[in-house]
Design goal:
The complex is a heterodimer.
Chain A lengths: L5 H8 L5 H13 L1 H17 L10 H11 L8 H39 L5 H7 L7 H8 L5 H15 L1 H36 L1
Helix pairs in contact in A: 1-3, 5-9, 7-8
Chain B lengths: L1 H21 L3 H23 L2 H17 L10 H19 L21 H18 L3 H11 L5 H8 L3 H22 L10
Classes of the chains: A mainly alpha, B mainly alpha.
Amino acid sequence: MTNHVTDWLNAYFDGELTGKRLHQVEEHLAECKACQAELEALGNVSGLLHEVPLPDFPSPERFATQVNLLLPQKRTPAPGRQLFEVGWWMIPVGLLAVWVFISTAVLLSNVVSMAESFGLLDDTTASWISSPSDTADVTSTLGQFGMLEGNSLQWAETTENFTRGLFPQIVLHVSVALLYLAWIAVWWARQTHQVSEPLLEG
Amino acid sequence: MESYSVATDTAINETELVTRAQNGERNAFSELVRIHARGVMNVIHRMCGDEQIAEDAAQETFIRAWLNLSSYRPQTSLRNWLYRIAVNAATDMLRKEKRILPGDIEDLQLADERPGPESLVSQQERILLVQKAVLSLPDTSRAVLVLREYEGMSYHEIADSLDIPMGTVMSRLNYARKLLKEKLEAKLFVRMEVEHD
């Protein structure tokens, strides 16, 4: 006898076969002593498994009471708490929005400056867009009064330009990044507290 | 027809209880615990073979269920969802409590003579052997075997409960039964040998 149906005997034994496959296994079993014995062995194993008794567990009512006493306090959906949760999740969204706003403003500013330097803007637009504070006003004034000269004047102008232009951008970016990291740290602390809560009560 | 009506009523009642429990009502959750306590404890006991551990793991199961109730989708079976948590809790508990892991089944010496009726002694030994054989199975295969043999779940329900494909259910079940047969037939005088042509 060949083409045994060993692979399908478990499914047959469990009543999981239907249709053509069921018919095929039944036909084979009618003729094959080996597969019949294999099926009988499955029945024997199953019978042995069912000989193992269950212990006397506490009644479901008593068990439910025990579990109820062990249940940790769940987050109660109080309205104030819900508002707090919404606000809490709005913090990173707000920070992201601020960062996008700053980046876009800087980008646009750079584009306008480039357009202006290439003479792509007419005079009216350029005068409307250009900020009068773009130049190193303080250093120029000091230079006019003769308090700064030569290299010192040049260094002071570069420093003032950097302080007025690039420095605020760096401060803003770093501030946003630090606030975001702080939010992640608090979030992490809250998560850790929530996970350890049931263990403590258990 | 009457039994169908009762089953539908039970399902509706359970759905309502789940909704109330999801809203934080502890009494509704306690009622769900009462309904499913026996099944969960049975599954865990079959998984770990120790009464006290089974009770502890069952409590852990329901605490995990309570904490994660918001992730349960009411259109799926609560029993299957709970059994998945129960199997995981039992497996975790077994890892922690290594003392209940069985020794080698070959180490078990069957007594030739014992006081009392011979049939009773023989049955106790058989039970011990079977328990050891089941506990020596890999966790994944044992879980499938327990849900099929003791809980009578269909392959589809087991796949749903353990979140594994049907093919995996079949292969794990075949493997578990094959191992059990090999382990038990050497010790028990049950004719299970098969000689293929």
